[in-house]
Polyamine aminopropyltransferase
Amino acid sequence: MEMWYTEKQTPSVSLSLKTTKTLHVEQTEFQHLAMIETEAFGRMLVLDGMVQTSVVDEFVYHEMIAHPALYTHPNPKNVLVIGGGDGGTIREIIKHPSVEKATLVEIDGRIIELSKQYLPEIAVALTGEPKVEVKVEDGIKHINESKNTYDVILVDSTEPVGPAVGLFSQDFYQGIYDALKEDGLMVAQTESPFFNGDLITSVNKRLRNIFPYVKTYLASIPTYPSGLWSFTMGSKKYKIEDVDINNLYSIETKYFTPELMLASTKLPKFVQDLVKGE
């Protein structure tokens, strides 16, 4: 008998994937967690019924949340990831030679442990990397206790439900601003322009209330709702548009290129309108 996993992405849209095996299921202290094997996208992490990452397309998300920020900042030494317990964003961060410390703060330690077990190619940097520190604690609390500490902060959150709701608030973004050094910058994943337009508008408005420079950019991620995904940067000083891509050092990637980084900020008209709040 065929087995299928279905994520109800909106009340009228679902994603269905043929599965070969259920690897692990549990209710953690914070959310329902499942590891499944799919034919099309390999092993997959699912939280509260929503796809978080898969071994086939994870590189798009993790490269695009990390590298635009780390190339825009000219000398990122101390980098923080809020969420991201699968480890993929940390893996990308430590590719940058200037990074001296990469800190992961994940509220749900079970995501970290099960990602090491079932997604080792994604979680590879969570064990034995001298630059990496892993903390199992509340990201909001950590931000509020880390004034003027980080060069770059990446908010690798789940959708704005359950334990991640506070990671999209005005107070949280103000806390990030305060936790950044005087020339620091942040990037957050900001959902689908097709299905979460109101969130993109609200995040841009909140960040513009705090940061002098705010920029939304896009990437194509097949397993995420609609396949088109957004990220939004808030920066105290540096701008993506000012990066001289001809002088960038080279790192190994599958999706990201310096040229793509610049192109990803050229938004379709309907996304421009969302960013402007029109």
Q: What stands out?
A: Residues 58-72 form the longest helix (15 residues). The chain has two domains: 3-52, 58-241+252-276.
